[in-house]
Amino acid sequence: MTGHEVVPHGSHWGAFEAVVRDGRLESTRPPADDPSPTPIVDGIAGAVTSDARIRTPVVRRGWLEHGPGATSRRRGADEFVAVSWDRALDLVAGELDRVRRDHGNAAIFGGSYGWSSAGRFHHAKTQLARLLNLLGGFTGQISNYSFAAADAVLPHVLGDPRPGGGHVTSWDVLADHTRLWVAFGGLPAKNTQVEGGGTLRHGYEGNLRAVRRAGARFVTVSPVRDDAPSYLDSQWVPVRPGTDTALMLGIAFALVEAGRHDEDFLRRYCTGWERVRDYLLGATDGTPKSPDWAAGICGVPEPTIRALADTMARHRTMLSATWSLQRADHGEQPYWMLITLAAMLGQIGLPGGGFGFAYGCEDGIGNTRYPFAAPELPRGVNPVTTAIPVARISDMLLHPGEPYEFAGRTRTYPDVRLVYWAGGNPFHHHQDLNRLVEAWRRPETVVVNEIWWTATARRADIVLPATSTLERNDIAASSRDAHLVAMKRAIAPLHQARHDHEIFAGIAERLGVGTAFTEGRDELGWLRRLYDDFRARAARHVDPLPEFDAFWSAGRVRVWPGGRTVLLGDFRADPDAHPLRTPSGRIELFSEVVAGFGYAETPGHAVWVPPREWRESRRYPLHLLSNQPATRLHSQLDMAGVSAESKIDGREPCRLNPRDAHARGIAPGDTVRIYNDRGACLAGAVLDDALMPGVVQLSTGAWFAPADPALAGSLDLHGNPNVLTPDRGTSRLGQGPSAHSALVEVERVCGSAPPADAFRPPEIWAQ
Fold it and tell me: Which of 411, 253, 367 is nearest to 735 (CA)?
């Protein structure tokens, strides 16, 4: 490319335009017709051209000199040796072949995560799965870090996991009918800067404002006041972290006590109400779940609990919960209890009433999905059945061959010898990173495809430099967004980077499945195939979409006109004609199936079970909230744009209530040490009364930067909260991450502290 060009593209942060001059990327900017663009887009150009880019294939020196597994404790601290692409691909192919031949395909862990690109073709997780399936399969992952506990429990309650992922009542229905919205965990607008497959126009703010203008009143139940945007004028009900289930039980008790619950709905549309009622009233355990009982646990005054029950019963009420509520010990319980409370109000299936999960978690949630699959690269079938719950990586690596319980079954962890990671950063997503450091030393070989020198790339044996989205062509698509967006290549690949598809095609060729992997198509050939398949599916539901060439030339195409959705509306209208996919066909407030698993922590209906870490303690008196950041997506773009600008002396900002800060002699801008028995990190102090006392908030995503990379337990210099969070499953039912059940202490750091240096590339030797 020469001269000045503006190239349309797409990302998780929405559609944008790349400004290119003489083949060099100058800047990135949102399109003019996005009503609520995110400033995160401005940092894309800085990230693409960052010094943190991986420039050449490299191999860890100890692995290269001594072979697989011999020096694995040096991962993260060893030097790297630059090698040619041919040498690197030969080594990777040889390792894949050795491990599957000597140990079986279950010994290959195909780790990845789905946020590497909004593009549906260059989607690293899918590309990796396609290759490994052609080679005989691999150990994969079940569910996701976002809502794994919900995925496990909702099929037993509703017969369907999809409401946990954002299948909810649509915005237009909410604006017309909702008059009270009680949001457990809030409606955090910062999270709606992103959408999994991208979005053309961010609509969350406009949709939420429309509900407010129509007359709805909002209540935010959260330890953090600004978990709801200020334009909602929401009533803030501060609640102790991890106690939402107890609060809901107190509200439920008040409804029964006042005779305000809907017995007719509970008997016609639900099963198990009698068991729940006995638990509420204390008949089963001797403890009535009264508002006074709940107040002592959750910190919400008894009169407030009773007032919430009264106002919920008097209005068309939407009850919502964020994904964050179920990322905690016993995270299945608040979702089960929210459904129970909505059933007691009798408004499930009515327009504007009932319940909804994940409003405010991504931009498209609340939009009506189109009823056909978005474009996706076929990945084939994985014949290996040893997949683990997504957040049990360290357990798998540390305890090969040992049994564990999950979703009513006893399974066995596979003996993984090779980890192949592409398109993700487990040293961001995972909890208790010091434990992961130790677990990461167990495999014989770790291979990583990556764009930047993340903590995961630094701890690999073979690192293959991948292109960013601006260096390739793709299609951005989300079934919650009305448009497909052409992601046109803006610049040539930088340094020696290659597309993930090209990398995997080279490995496939070496292992005899090259033609099966590529099917003889190049990049544009695959995009045409994916679009044509999508167009054929869509033709059964909408007017014909334009041919691929017309779409590609226009840069976007409108797919779906939208529509009104009422969650469980058909079921409400006729539960016999539209039964749920539960054993009873009804909402199972009590599940015989779950009760039959024999798990004490999930006895068959929603219950209050205290988190293993909660309330104040002498050693660690503060609750840690490791929420999603406002300045990036997970750990992406941490080195550029608004994320880099938000740092305090190069460290992640940490919010404290002024009362807690003053008690510790902490002033704004101070470097603080946050610690517990699992680890410690440094951060920059921000004082803010938007947090209730006793709570400290440190967003996820700051790149893990231990002072001594060779030492598990070393002080993280950059402010990654996952050195502090517990690595344990939510329960045996869900085995989801329980990051929000963490207690910490904070202290002021006296004197100077070492720089974070999180983005400086490692030492690389010439071959």
Answer: 411
* CATH among 3.40.50.80, 3.40.50.720, 2.40.40.20, 3.30.70.120 for 622-748: 2.40.40.20
Domain 58-145+382-480+493-543 listed as CATH 3.40.30.10: no
Whole-number pLDDT of residue 616: 63
Strands of the sheet containing 354-357, edge to edge, are 235-237, 217-221, 180-184, 317-321, 354-357
Residue 591: both structure tokens together: 């599940």
Q: Which of 113, 359, 453, 614 is catalytic?
A: 113
Of 115, 145, 181, 452, which residue is the catalytic one?
A: 115
Distance CA 167, CA 152 (A): 16
Give the model confidence (pLDDT) of 649-667 as tens digits. Answer: 999 999 999 999 999 999 9
In order of 368, 369, 372, 548, 748, the CA distances from 536 in angstroms are 20, 17, 10, 12, 61
Please tell me the class of the 159-367+584-596 domain.
alpha beta
CA dihedral 89, 93, 98, 100 (to 10 degrees): 140
Told to judge if 279 belongs to the known catalytic residues of this protein, a careful annotator would answer no
In this prediction, residue 2 has a pLDDT band, given cuts at 50, 70 and 90, of: low
Q: Which amino acid appears at position 343 of this protein? A: A
CB atoms within 10 A of CB 748: 14
Place of tokens 């293993």: 612
Q: Mind listing the pLDDT tens digit for each residue in 142-153?
A: 999 999 999 999
CB of 510 within 8 A of CB of 90?
yes
Model-wide pTM > 0.85: yes
The pLDDT assigned to 436 comes to: 98
Amino acid occupying residue 754: P
Q: What are the start-end ranges of the E strands in 594-742?
A: 622-625, 653-656, 671-676, 679-687, 695-697
Task: Assess whether 204 carries a catalytic annotation.
Answer: no
Beta pairing, strands 743-748 & 4-9: unpaired
